[in-house]
Queue: 3 jobs
Job 1
Amino acid sequence: MTREEALELLKQNLKTDNLFTHSLAVGAIMKELAKHLNKDEQKWEITGLLHDLDYEETKDDPDNHALKTVEMLGDKVDQDVKDAILAHNEKKELEKDIEIALYAADQLSGLIVAAVLVRPNKDIAELSVKSLKKKFKDKAFARGADREKIKEIAKLDIELNDFFKIAIDGMVRIKDELDLA
């Protein structure tokens, strides 16, 4: 599946701007992680883009979240992508690198977006690792971003500060698409 095909699926299934932005952000973080780990950048980006494809349909039925996405995707993506999508909603144990990456990136994207939105100019390019780390330590800030899930990135031998840098860099690359202002 190409990025364009994944974006088309998102447009067909997600009507909420925030959810679309979240999907773009997770896709960007996953692509940057793949680059860092010498993995398949396109596959990892597609995984990040599509991980919440069913969210609007399953938001009142969280037990089916991710299961429905895998069903919707059918044979359009390989099993690694489907497994990562299942693992991000704890429908599968975290085993493969792509699963661990998505599990952590999903949560970190929310923390980053929240950190950008409280900045005066709302520019992701001006968000520093130091500033994000401070927000990470503040448990009252962006409570929905599960810090323990973000820390799972250590299983890929990536330090937290490095993960923050990788994620910010990935999001900066698509900052015009994110429309965070």
Job 2
Amino acid sequence: MSAVGPQAVAIARAWIGTPYRHQVSVQGAGTDCLGLLRGVWRALYGAEPELVPPYTADWSEPAREEILWRAAARHLVALPRGGVPEAPGEVLLFRMRTGAVAKHLGIATEIGARASFVHAYTGHGVVESPLSEPWARRIVARFQFPEGAR
């Protein structure tokens, strides 16, 4: 288990209640799922590792490019593909529809029978949701934050 995991969980939970706002990353004011991950990163490490270009709600779908997956692989530590999280603080990448690109992120908060994750969800804002079967079967990749948080 990553030593950074519990810190990531505490930071993510502090964002709960932040409204959903596309392409924003400001705790309490607005965020989307990528903005939540960016906010957790900033709290753990300081500056973000790269600039995030503007993106639309359907980003990467027309070109069918796994942009989010590749970005996660550049900065996070890849874990065995798919499956359920094995430790709190894992970053979960979801494919929302079969055949679609993976473009939703969450952070595992609990594992086992009471598995849950924090994510920014359209129409709901930042929430902690049970990692129910419909969510779990959409996981296509898992990552952990690198060691060395401040």
Job 3
Amino acid sequence: MIWKKNIYDSLTGCAALCDEFATECSRSEDIENWYRCIFLNLDCADMCRQLAMLYVRGSENTRLLAKACIEVCEKCAQEVNQFTDHDRCQQVHAMCQQTIRSCVSILEMAYQSDADLKNPATTPASLFYGIDLRDTLYN
């Protein structure tokens, strides 16, 4: 799988924003009203951060975590969407929606690479004639 920087940026951006928002909510005077929001934001941040690492590494488990990340981001977005009077909630909601789209892109890329494995393209042998391996090793 070839990774795209905008997907990585979306995942890490969501992780950072959800961490920041959870910290802000934990400082609230009416923290009891924010418990679920805090925990879902922390979960979302952890999932996005972990998925970003697997994605960049090209792990075979990226697709599995992307599916789970979609679910966690959806829960987080739904929870913060209840607090429509807070601008930060709307930012988190928008970021989670963007991250869900990035996770869907990861899943689509994985399915494309699976199809490529079933029908691999062959490289003509004529491309390799005249290549001296010593030159390629040292240059």
